[in-house]
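Provenance

Sequences were taken from public entries as deposited. Structures were produced by running a predictor on each sequence independently, with no templates supplied. The record for Urease accessory protein UreF from Anaerococcus prevotii is shown for reference.
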Amino acid sequence: MTKITTMNRKKYEEELILLQLNDSQFPIGSYSHSYGLENYILKNLIKDSNDTKKYLINYLKTSFYYNDLLAVYLAYNYFIEEKKDELLELNIRLQAQKSQKELREASEKLGSRLISTVHKMDIAMPQKYYDYLDYHKKNDIIIHHAVAYALITASLDIDLTASLLSFAFNMAQNLVITAVKTVPISQFDGQKILYEIYDLIIYLVTKIDKLDEDYYFTAYPGVEVASMQHEVLYSRLYMS
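Predicted structure for Urease accessory protein UreF:
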């Protein structure tokens, strides 16, 4: 068995905190959002595991990649480089970009609950972290989920690539869980899909630093329309 040292203990703790923060049961309510997927299912556009996989791949490499995953990458670097105003502008841009009410409110609430839950866990955070939270509060700017996650992982000096991989896998996992419950597909098929998109997640994370700024926060009408239609459903299982 490997001997525990100060150096490898920190590495182990980083891995554990990422597992905890990105657990589907972490109490911030991420399991209650489908991000428009429920509407696709109700319209019979997603009927089986093959449809689920196609949807997941398209969602991850378009809307999620150019918005929330990008926001984690930018926010992490802004925090490390002490760019307070750029971080503030990032949250303002996310607020404007998320024009659909349900998606915007989901991002706001998940961010707020993530910060609140981490605070209640009594994790030792650097003063810089609290300064950035206060700076947003002073300017009356809401901290979105992706930014809150980046602030926490950067404050804890967790590796950026590991943070991005965990964040992306968490999103994929939540969508697969939604599909298992509502399409429905089997638990086995769900796990098979997650395993089969490992390469995609790795590819997206490792190329995000080369993304052209012209593509930052690109909008995808299909997801937006599905989310808007979801707002007026007579009956629904998910909040978005």
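The chain has one domain: 33-228.
The mean pLDDT is 92.
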